[in-house]
Amino acid sequence: MSRRRFAAVTAALVLAGTAPVLLPAAPAAAAACSSYPDWQAGKWYNAGDIVRYTDGRAYVAEHGNPGYDPTISTWYWEPYACDNGPETPVGSFVVTEAQFNQMFPNRNPFYTYSGLTAALSAYPGFANTGSDTVKKQEAAAFLANVSHETGGLVHVVEQNTANYPHYCDWSRPYGCPAGQDAYYGRGPIQLSWNFNYKAAGDALGIDLLNNPWLVQNDAAVAWKTALWYWNTQTGPGTMTPHAAMVNQAGFGQTIRSINGSLECDGKNPAQVQSRVDTYQRFTQILGVSPGGNLYC
């Protein structure tokens, strides 16, 4: 059984109202990240309070909370821009918000740029390893694949509801506590199956096994699950997509790691070409060469 299954992207529109719109934090006045008090677990914070997390980055409380982890409880916290060089959490991503909007002009409002940048702390090596060219190539490769999986970041959940009851493997010792039909595809890389929700949740410190709906209700959690797969899973390939781009194996190897058993080695050249075309368009937007080995 494969580690995960991609839902087919259909022409149907994502159901209206399935997920709230998460708005980015208000622009911040420039200040050194180190000037804010250190975050403390268990301490009460009021809306508007700003803290410096253990990674040196600043976060602002969007809602009052009893010291929830800013990198996990993204309903309560948002990254806060501060002028402190490499500690600045906003604006350090190699893809600007304007470029992101250019890549996804028709995206579902659920897939916010702020949600993506908030998720980056989960895997700091992503699009932040190697030369500037490699960083941009990896970001373009990731975004091209998620674009393909979601119809241009349109679909938040799997469109074929008839598949929903199929993603529960009762042979696992933890079963399917959220229900037989709760583990359908969600998010930028359509996370599915109870064992993948368990593995992703364990890695991210989020209880996705019992609350898989977080992936369709919290943009940062959705992006984190996609980054979890990209950075840690080989799928049907021999390397993670992150390793493929950082080690210059080429974009084709990211396709193999994501859906190679159904698309690579001549099985579905049209789907492969669609991914490659999107990747080439995104690298053009970022002003870098796509590199070699584009096909699988």
From TrEMBL:
Pfam families: Glyco_hydro_19
Signal peptide: 1-30
InterPro entries, per database record: CBM5/12 (IPR003610), CBM_sf_5/12 (IPR036573), Glyco_hydro_19 (IPR016283), Glyco_hydro_19_cat (IPR000726), Lysozyme-like_dom_sf (IPR023346), TAT_signal (IPR006311)
Every Chitin-binding type-3 domain range: 36-80
CDD domains cross-referenced by the UniProt entry: ChiA1_BD, chitinase_GH19
UniProt key word RNA-binding: no
UniProt keyword Transferase, yes or no: no
Record keywords, A-Z: Disulfide bond, Hydrolase, Plant defense, Signal
Residue runs in coiled coils: none
PANTHER family xrefs: CHITINASE 12 (PTHR22595:SF79), CHITINASE-RELATED (PTHR22595)
Protein name: Chitinase
